[in-house]
Amino acid sequence: MNKEQRDFPSDFCRDVWWWAVGIVPLSVSLSDEVKSKSTQDVLDGCHQWHAYFNDLTADMYNNENEYQPASPRQYRDILEHISAGGEIKGDSMVWDADNWLRYREKINKSKPYRTNKITLERCLKTLARTGLKFEYTENDIIFIHEKHPKIFHAMCVMEHSPDIRLTPARHHFAHCDFRRLYKKYAESHEELLRRVTDESLRITQAIHEFCKGLKVYRSVHFGIIKYKYDKERVLDYSLHKDKYPTLRVNIGTCTKFGADLNKDAFIKTLQKQKESVQDMFINNVDKCDREDCTRYPITINGHELTICKCSKVRVFAHESDVLDILSLIEARKASIYQYQ
Predict the structure, then answer these.
(1) CA of 106: how far to CAs of 18, 119, 193, 237, in Å?
(2) Where among 185, 218, 248 does a domain terminate?
(3) How far apart are CA 90 and CA 142, in angstroms?
(4) CA 84 remoteness from chain centre
(5) Are residues 84 and 203 in the same domain?
(6) Domain limits at 167?
(7) How far is CA 281 from the centre of its chain?
(8) How far, CA to CA in Å, does 153 sit from each of 10, 45, 81?
(9) Mean pLDDT on 92-110
(10) Same domain for 98 and 40?
(11) Are 283 and 165 members of one domain?
């Protein structure tokens, strides 16, 4: 899959693409530490699991009608559940039949399945396209993979690693990040941005260099990259698959709770900046809908707006936007400095 892609046949294909471009290369995820702790079956399982998810996403993308109306996320959830609740016997994942039937009944009655007329049986039949097979015996249900027989050895280890059921740890399963097999693992800034375009990487580098000069420092928390000055968040950015560019930069406005926005340094600074910066604010300000927020009328470049201190500027950024984004960051820092 090409991370520079911007046009898709359908939303389903976009979801599959976003999954596929996030799969971590084996050269990164199979670290020396992971190799040293893994049995040969688990190592083989990692290689085969990586190949399987590349096969599966390619088949989903090219044959979406076979997989719909279930979503890519629902197929991943099924694979996770198979790996979490069964027991490895040989290369098979074996479930107690009664436990599996209870899961089947529960998931088929769930709102997402009922609304879209999905059944677990239909999803499993579709997953058979790329090699997943199962059979019932008197007491068990046995899952195997014909093409990649060792996958459950690795999947089972990951599903029993520390806190794997917590968000955002679950995305390590989807993306074959085997560094999560035996311990908690938090991705670095560079790893979180693996899926963005080269243009977006240049934007984040420009923001980082500018923020360093302002003594605004970066941290990573639950998949969001944050920049703070004096413990107050100046901006953050994250990835959103449904837009192009996928990188969205979020810049705060007023700092002090209850402050009059017309007297805040952010608005005062913004009113003195060039028209393109003001237009970026007008076109991208995201007004909150909380009923308990006090709203203030402000005027920017002849436009009257009513916003509260919670409002943020949210920009799906192109490289041509960088200078204006930096101007907004400077205005945000001015607001923080005003109340020190």
Answers:
(1) 28, 11, 36, 37
(2) 185
(3) 11
(4) 22
(5) no
(6) 11-185
(7) 26
(8) 34, 6, 14
(9) 95
(10) yes
(11) no
Are 146 and 225 within one domain? no
Predicted confidence at residue 166, as pLDDT, reads 66
Better-scored residue on pLDDT, 223 or 252: 252
State pLDDT tens for residues 130-160: 999 999 998 999 999 999 999 999 999 999 9
Give every strand in the sheet of 312-316, ordered side by side: 217-221, 224-229, 232-239, 247-252, 312-316, 285-286
Both 216 and 174 in a single domain? no
Query: 44: number of CA atoms within 13 Å, CB side?
Result: 10
Cα angle 84, 86, 88; round to 5: 105
Summarised one tens digit per residue, pLDDT across range 186-218 is: 888 888 898 999 999 999 999 999 999 999 999
Q: How far apart are CA 30 and CA 23, in angstroms?
A: 13
Question: How far from 63 is each of 9, 14, 117, 289, CA to CA, in Å?
Answer: 11, 13, 19, 40
Q: How many whole angstroms separate alpha carbon 329 and alpha carbon 252?
A: 8
